[in-house]
Design brief:
The protein is built from 4 helices and no strands. With 69 residues, the chain is mainly alpha-helical. The protein has one domain.
């Protein structure tokens, strides 16, 4: 499930600019992938600031449905 989705996302991200890797165009590689470290920094900063944790899949309750009033 989620592990396969994670690896497929990595595959899509890496496959965005294969031509730049083939020609070793470092400027194009930097521009294409600069959002990845930015996302990681923002994600970790959010986790630290808000003290959130990842809930294991075994503990997620998907049986009850909440109805908005």
């Amino acid at each position: 499930g989620p592990i396969v989705a994670f690896f497929l996302c990595i595959l899509v991200i890496v496959g965005q600019d294969l031509h730049s890797f083939a020609t070793l165009n470092w400027q194009a590689i930097g521009i294409t992938y600069m959002s990845v470290p930015l996302f990681i920094v923002l994600y970790i900063g959010y986790k630290i600031k808000n003290h959130t944790r990842v809930i294991p899949l075994e503990e997620v309750d998907l049986t009850h449905v909440r109805v908005a009033k």
